[in-house]
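Incident review: delayed structure delivery

Summary: a single-chain prediction request sat in the queue longer than the usual turnaround. Root cause was a stuck worker, restarted by the on-call engineer. No data loss occurred. The affected request and its eventual output are reproduced below so the record is complete for anyone auditing the incident later.

Affected input:
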Amino acid sequence: MIRYIGKSESVGKTSGILSANLARVATDTSKFARWGDNYAYHIGDLSAVVLPGHELATQTLKYRSWANALFEAVNTERPRLRQPIFFWVKARRKDDIGIWTEFGPTRLTFLEYLLIGIASSIFPSSSLHK
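Output delivered after worker restart:
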């Protein structure tokens, strides 16, 4: 089952400059390619719901939904996953071929769109892309 598919662009909002989401990725966990432990990043926002001590204002509806789908209980000191979770990351090159070879090299944004569509069709009840 696939829960979530996402991308992190290497170039930030300022053209030609490394994305802040990737800067210092080896040492700074706050952003970690959009999976960081800071608020406004996946792990940080999920933690705000799952772990006690976070302001209600930091607990968004999206991550409440994620937390309920992934964890047996929320707002607890000892959260337990409903099932094992695997995290996979792949660095891409511009000339990488996507899931349909006939398209040839595929832009990352388009590839993300295709993969989310396929995963949502195959696993409609488990997708976190709602």
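Verification: Helices lie at 42-50, 61-70, 108-122.
Action items: add queue-age alerting; document worker restart procedure.
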